[in-house]
Amino acid sequence: MLPELGASDPYFPYVPGEDSTPTRSIGDVVTGHLINARPLPLPHPHLAVLPVQRTRGLMYTTDAMIALVEDAAAHVAEHHPGSVVFLGNFGRKGGGDIPYSVSHNNGRDADLAFFLVDVEGTPALLDDLLSLDDQGQILLEDDETQAPRLLRFDPTRNWTLVEGLLRSNAADLQYIFISNPLRTLLLAEGRRRGAPRELLERAATLLVQPGGALPHDDHFHLRIHCTPLDLASGCVERGRRGPGFRPDLSLRRDVQERATDLLASSTPELRAAAVERLALLGSRSASRQVLALIDDPSPRVRAAVARALPELGSHLPALSARQSVETHPRVLAELIHALSRTADPDATRALARLLQRPEVVDLGSAGQLPLASLAAEALARRDDPTPVPDLIEALDTADPITRRQIEHALRILTNHDLNAVAHALDPRPEDNSPAALWRAWYQEHRRLSRDQWLTRGFQIAGFQIDEISLRYVWELCQAVAEDPHLSYNAQRTLMRLSGNEPQSLGWPRHDANFYWRRWFERRWQRMGLPPMPPHLTTLGPNNPYASDDDS
Predict the structure, then answer these.
(1) What are phi and psi of 154, to 5 degrees?
(2) Phi, psi of 175 (to 5 degrees)
(3) Distance of alpha carbon 73 from alpha carbon 42, whole angstroms
């Protein structure tokens, strides 16, 4: 019914009369997704994907990005016949997270390889992206002769590529990420070739070494602005605007007005689509009309309203009131999901009350689940310790499915599993049932803060963490690869301490572990962190992501 981020063909709520064929970039570059993704037009006379990146299948993007890259590649081929622009990562078919970058989620990011030459000026063919030093060089070992081979940044063709990107009208560039030393080489080449002043000024503005990310010394990272159609579909801009860019919001305003009118439609499907579209647009001006549909006779509409309300404001009283009388299983599931995303602490209490509800929710192909188990799962995601005693009490009467979900929630909220709970008790109660052990643990630890619970849980698991602070960043990074509750809490702690919130909780733990080690390894000196233990480094030549970025 509603978008699944990263799905191959995610759902989109069209309003009547809209063309359903163009690509649409939804959300932002970090958390968004992509509708009607286009594959790169391969084989192509001027484009090819690097062999390493080709194996990943990340060759989907928007119509605008494809047109931009084709224009730039044609410009290079016109001035340097036979040249081919090699491509790195673009995105997944439906957008969503990739393990090689924090961005690339909604079709507005693309990686292009640098043109390199050898000492004789002969163009080099590459298998992967290669990191260059401040002089724009890299020394490799020849695979056949084992002799050293020096490659260098080719300012001539790389400037021509940048020039082609700047001259294209296919998309509005927001950034071209590149390291500062290579940026200097490019701008010097542009001046040497007598590029027009306006073009040089645009290049100087768009060519940027990103702050808080890798320097981009191995590839160009393009980012384009949302198109008018993207903005009317829920595309979200972050960061500064590219030179001369002014967002065209006329189509967005028209769609918002039409969707608001559709809230009064006599057709439930149209009312639901209108609610979902207004949520994508973040149309808080329509929140009052959307809220009025929370008691709509159609469960399809009520489910859409429940999902939309957290995007349009808290509306906790309405959500709580509806969940107390709602009987439709899908709507109940959506109400619980909405409560889990509401910042108001009263949402925790509303969810805790659901632990005593006996209903079973039929989720179709997902099976039947007790309502209380959905509530326990939602409580686990709120990182709020106040419902721990409610969860423990619910263990006594819980069915097997709900009991497993409650035990999961307790592990997440306390950072202890049952073995850790027993380890922490002195003396241990005679009753060894899970409920009795958790009850005894809570009585001993209820006066401690959740950070103290987290610290003790990490210590019992063998990590030398004395407090929740960046002094213990490398121990926390290692905990990301451990049991699910330890991994979750380590990642949430690292997010809180760093202010960086990637979607790593949805990645495999080994990918998340690598990501966090790399992220802090790139920044440890300027953040004043302890030196990284050598065995944790991510910068060696034999790791799978060494040449990728986190912008």
Answers:
(1) -95, 95
(2) -145, 150
(3) 13
**How many C-beta neighbours within 10 Å does residue 341 have?**
15
| Amino acid at site 223 | R
H/E run at residue 405: helix 400-414
Contact 360, 370 (CB under 8 A): yes
Task: Give the predicted TM-score (pTM) of the model.
Answer: 0.84
Residue 117: phi and psi, rounded to 5, are -130, 160
Paired residues of 61 in beta bridges: 38
Per-residue pLDDT of the chain (551 residues; tens, 9 = 90+): 334 444 678 999 999 999 999 999 999 998 899 999 999 999 999 999 999 999 999 999 999 999 999 999 999 999 999 999 999 999 999 998 887 887 999 999 999 999 999 999 999 988 999 999 999 999 987 767 777 889 999 999 999 999 999 999 999 999 999 999 999 999 999 999 999 999 999 999 999 998 766 789 999 999 999 999 999 999 999 999 999 999 999 999 999 999 999 999 999 999 999 999 999 999 999 999 999 999 999 999 999 999 999 888 868 888 888 988 888 888 988 999 999 988 888 899 999 999 988 888 877 777 788 989 999 999 999 999 999 999 999 998 899 999 999 999 999 999 999 988 988 887 777 788 899 999 999 999 999 999 999 999 999 999 999 999 999 999 999 999 999 999 999 999 999 999 988 878 888 898 889 889 988 998 899 899 999 999 999 876 545 444 556 55
What is the Cα–Cα distance from 380 to 413, expressed in whole angstroms? 6
Instruction: Determine the Cα–Cα distance for residues 159 and 199; give it in Å rounded to an integer.
Output: 11
CB of 215 within 8 A of CB of 522? no
Residue 347 sits at φ, ψ, to 5 deg, of -65, -35
Q: Beta-strand (E) ranges in 367-461?
A: 368-370
Q: Write the CA distances from 92 to 51, 59, 109, 218, 223, integer angstroms.
A: 17, 7, 11, 22, 16
Q: What's the rounded Cα separation, in Å, for the pair 495 and 30? A: 15
CB 17, CB 273: distance < 8 Å: no
Question: Where in 29-131 does DSSP place strands (E)?
Answer: 33-35, 38-39, 47-49, 60-61, 85-87, 109-113, 116-118
Q: Which of helix, strand or coil describes residue 355?
A: helix
Number of residues written out for the chain? 551
Q: Output phi, psi for 173, to 5 deg.
A: -70, 135
Backbone Cα Rg of the chain: 27
**Rounded Cα–Cα distance for residues 352 and 375 (Å):** 7
3-state DSSP assignment of residue 544: coil
Closest CA to 473 of 494, 496, 495, 501: 494
428 DSSP assignment? P
